[in-house]
Design brief:
The protein is α+β, with helices and mostly antiparallel strands. Helices cover about 15% and strands about 40% of the residues. It has two domains: about 90 residues; about 180 residues, Immunoglobulin-like.
């Protein structure tokens, strides 16, 4: 049964020389000037509803900063906010977005990443690992050791990308909170006749760059059918609807994580999630192409 709610997920996940953002994304102070009502409403909502940050942060003193605003369909503005404890904190900030309409009404909210305290020992270790990784990447790119088998784990210019083999399913079911905070089961099913759902679990790791900003949307990746077309990811937020199903449903995936929206991947961090496609029944796939924040090709043939 369809619902007007949209699922929200909590990912543990963050700009560099290569930045991919949509043309309708406005950053920082320009976003405040262009969308004063929406930005004020989003900041006020975040400050008044700190329970979303979990038990460790909901009673802490926090500071918020607007990262930017993305214009969505229907006059909705998606306000991206970074947040962190206001005192005694060193590390990477948390990130979320709030969808607000032109009147200032909040429609949805999603946590993208929680704040992460930095430790000097960890930073030193990451620096050493990054230097080693950079040397390894150059050797691997020169030697091309992946030739002759599926390239499930490949290096781009700034990101390591792993795309698991595509899973063919008649539909997918997962659990996530609604905009009201209730945990529901959501489903995604094909819209066309003679088609099926394809799920690709994707892991992005930033081991060589300061930070990478990306927007995961329909232009973020391609799944290519062998000798045929390139498929774009489904908008999982728009296509998901609430269902009632038993816990033993074979397509209920307890580890399913939405990978959709804006992300900033700092050095040493990784982002894991699932991209969903719709393809003709029985399709065979030649490769998966990542296009957001970096470019890389994972070959299945």
């Amino acid at each position: 049964m369809a619902s007007t709610d949209r699922p929200e997920s909590r990912d543990e996940e963050d700009e560099t020389t290569e930045v991919t953002v949509q043309e309708n994304f406005i950053e920082g102070d320009e976003a405040r000037d262009a969308f004063p009502t929406e930005v004020a409403a989003a900041l006020r909502y975040a400050e008044e509803n700190k329970y979303e940050y979990g038990p460790k942060l909901r009673d802490a003193e926090l500071q918020w900063e607007v990262n930017g605003v993305e214009s969505m369909d229907g006059g909705i503005s998606r306000v991206f906010i970074d947040y962190a404890p206001s005192t005694a904190f060193r590390g990477s900030s948390g990130s979320e977005y709030v969808d607000v309409d032109a009147s200032g009404a909040v429609l949805a909210r999603r946590q993208i990443r929680v704040p992460k305290q930095a430790l000097p020992v960890v930073l030193i270790a990451l620096t050493v690992i990054s230097l080693i990784s950079l040397a390894v990447v150059e050797v691997l790119l020169w030697a091309n050791p992946f030739e002759g088998g599926p390239d499930l784990y490949v290096a781009g210019r700034t990101l390591w990308i792993r795309a698991e083999l595509p899973r063919h399913q008649p539909y997918v079911v997962y659990e996530a909170p609604s905009s009201r905070g209730d945990i529901n089961q959501w489903a995604i099913q094909p819209e066309g006749e003679g088609t099926e759902i394809i799920v690709v679990e994707t892991l992005l790791t930033n081991q060589t760059s300061g930070a990478v900003r990306m927007v995961v949307d329909r232009e973020a990746a391609e799944l290519r059918i062998k000798g045929s077309i390139a498929l774009k990811p489904i908008n999982v937020i728009d296509r998901s609807y609430i269902v009632e199903t038993s816990s033993d449903d074979r397509y209920l995936d307890p580890d399913f994580r939405l990978m959709w929206g804006g992300f900033t991947l700092n050095q040493g961090e990784e982002l894991r999630g699932h991209l969903v496609f719709e393809a003709p029944l029985g399709s065979e796939f030649s490769d998966f192409r990542w296009l957001a924040g970096d470019t890389a090709v994972v070959r299945y043939q």
